[in-house]
């Protein structure tokens, strides 16, 4: 029996050793599998990280390309702006040149119109700007705005020279710049006032604007001195205005109260017009600025039907 116990003990140890050996091998196998799985997981992470880096590199490359496109577009815009600026400057210079030409043309037209308005040959240029020879009298013509003489008319006819000059000095005593006062004759009804310059003359005219000089209760007429040609035009215009104003009064086309606004004229240039419509007044007769002959407009006979224009033109042109 003692032998049986010993054998049983050997068998039991052998079984334990086998079991322990199996367990160790299993553990080793599991450990190996675990290690292999862990290594594979790390590789997978590295692959993913590498892939992510590659994707980021691609995106950065794409952004670089977009930045390059934007830079190209900005360069093109800058070039366009530079070209636009140069073109605009050229156009502006052209406009300035055209405006200068127009300004010169306007000056020439104004000088021409000035010449026509006053029936004089007005020179344009540095040497004779605004001046030229008068009509046949060898005098130097000066535009009315630059003249230095005023004439006062309306004193009683055949007044003594001393009376006219004394009255004129009294009337103008409060104005400066007057160099002389001269009656137009020993027996006369007008007197001339001479000034240092045109500015002094205009100071007087502005000072009595809307007023009249008066002597012994009678209103006087004052005006800038005119040439003979200008005086003729003014007188002819007065004749034309007065004759034409009678007609619409007789025909009932206007009233006494508004006859002066219904028929009016320009005494400097020489024409008469009728205001039937405020937006389009009609000229009736006019002094031709080249021939100095008074003429009637084609539409005048329809506007003032029945008026004797032939008789009026005869009166006006007899005074040439």
What does this structure look like?
This protein has 320 residues and is α+β, with helices and mostly antiparallel strands. It has three domains: 1-147; 151-224, Alpha-Beta Plaits (2-Layer Sandwich); 230-317. The protein is 56% helix and 16% strand. The protein contains seven helices and 14 strands. It has helices spanning 2-118, 161-171, 198-207, 228-251, 259-262, 300-303, 309-317, and strands at 131-133, 140-142, 149-153, 159-160, 178-183, 187-188, 190-195, 214-215, 218-219, 221-224, 263-266, 271-274, 282-287, 294-296. A four-stranded antiparallel sheet has the order 5-7-3-10. The protein has a four-stranded antiparallel sheet with strand order 11-12-13-14. A two-stranded antiparallel ribbon has the order 1-2. α4 (228-251) packs antiparallel against α7 (309-317). The chain starts with a helix and ends with a helix. Residues 114-138 have low confidence and may be disordered.
